[in-house]
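Request: Could I get any protein with tokenized structure?
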Amino acid sequence: MRDITAIQAAVVRCRRCPELREYAAQVARDKKRAHRDCSYWGKPVPSFGDAQARVVLVGLAPGAHGSNRTGRPFTGDASGDFLFPALYRAGFASAPLARDRFDGLELRDCFITAAARCAPPQNKPTPKELRNCFSFLVEEVEALERLRVAVGLGAIGFNAIVRALARQGFTFGVKPVFAHGAEFDATRDGRAVTLLGTYHPSRQNTNTGKLTVPMFDAIFTRAKEILARDGGAGR
């Protein structure tokens, strides 16, 4: 079993999708006018957080001018501007703002990953690209030995973590179906992981009111309740 550090090193080296590697690099070369003075990451984006975390968040894919620029999940874009304040309010993040991977922000008892690790065109990875990335998520589930709560950010992230848990031998009492606020328990050899679903904190959801601050906060409040039930919300 590879540890979290080794998995992330493998993510950055990955060339399973040459077309995505080229797209990420092209975006990094062309840049967005607002970020023309930035040095873009332009490679597969490694996951971020506490290697001993009991909570994992699974998103969709890096944003072309967000994570693909900063090199850290949900950092430098509107989705992160909605996510990190919620994590901070819940006590899972050391600060409410994420600007770049050198800003000193730390996650506490929380780990952020994604279904796809390279920025895809139109933010829509293909089924093949998702399959190519899947083994990394399976390895992360195995490496996060204290995992207790998994939060699927959007349907693709939700379905990816369902499959990853199943690949690691977890079974669900009923078939998980994505919905905001959905909750399902998975078990394996006496160990339980609770799966929570939430709308993705994308601009199209937050600007339209499909996902509000109270709705999002409720997800992390529920995660803390589950951790507290098992012996304390903190470590």
